[in-house]
Specification:
By secondary structure, this protein is of the alpha/beta class. Helix content is 24%, strand content 35%. It is globular, with a radius of gyration of 17 Å.
């Protein structure tokens, strides 16, 4: 799908936590956008300044997009996202990115996400199970505290409805505990993955976490190309 210049308008804004916001957009030009779950859009803030936002919604509803962002950093993109109101115009370019699930791939997927890195994985998993995906899949998801586990309730519901979906959330723990998502997710993957035969991994979050998880899987015998990743920070 070739990216194109688009214009949408804000329909609704939701606060998932104090620092995580969701925005629903209604497409105006074009009136519908073809994209794959896991892709993102680019919003311009000047001739050489853009910010990327993963699409949290699925391709089943091409006339609307939902974007989700961590606004804690407080930069130009965070301030813009915080200020969005219903009716505001949103120009963007998209869809972009190759962090997508290939449905014809027979391998069993392992998804690993750190905090806001869950957004593209949420879109992928929602789309898969809403369209008849009957195979096993596993999600390991870490956050500094429960408030940063965006979509936790949705994943718990998914696990109840689909026995083949295994959900493993984790948080840093009590105050003062080490908040090292890279270490915790590497430990979780070490525990969950006994055999890498027929496995493909989708890892999204910080660069350090991606490297740690990939190293664990490669040490177990998984080919590096079987680890798909998307770096958020």
């Amino acid at each position: 799908m070739k990216p194109r210049e688009c214009l949408a308008r804000v329909d609704a804004v939701r606060r998932l936590s104090p620092e995580i916001l969701e925005v629903d957009l209604r497409l105006e030009e074009p009136t519908a956008l073809e994209f794959a779950a896991g892709q993102w859009v680019s919003v311009p803030f000047g001739p050489k300044t853009v910010r990327a936002y993963s699409i949290a919604s699925t391709p089943q509803f091409p006339t609307r997009l939902t974007l989700c962002a961590d606004v804690a950093p407080g930069g130009i993109g965070s301030e813009w996202f915080r200020g969005l109101q219903p009716g505001d115009p949103v120009p963007f370019k998209g869809p972009l990115g190759g962090f997508v699930f290939t449905r014809a791939d027979p391998r069993r997927p392992l998804f690993v996400a750190e905090e806001i890195g869950i957004v593209p994985i949420r879109a992928i998993l929602t789309e898969l199970y809403a369209t008849g995906f009957g195979r096993r899949a596993t999600l390991a998801y870490w956050a500094r505290d429960p408030g940063w586990l965006a979509y936790d309730a949705a994943f718990r519901s998914l696990a109840r409805r689909y026995p083949g979906f295994a959900y493993h959330p984790a948080v840093a723990g009590a105050a003062g505990a080490a908040r090292d998502g890279a270490s915790r997710l590497a430990e979780t993957v070490t525990r969950l993955v006994a055999d890498v035969t027929g496995l493909v991994a989708y890892v999204c979050g910080s660069e350090s976490m991606i490297h740690r998880v990939r190293d664990v899987l490669v040490a177990k015998g998984l080919d590096r190309k079987s680890v798909k990743w998307e770096k958020f920070w």
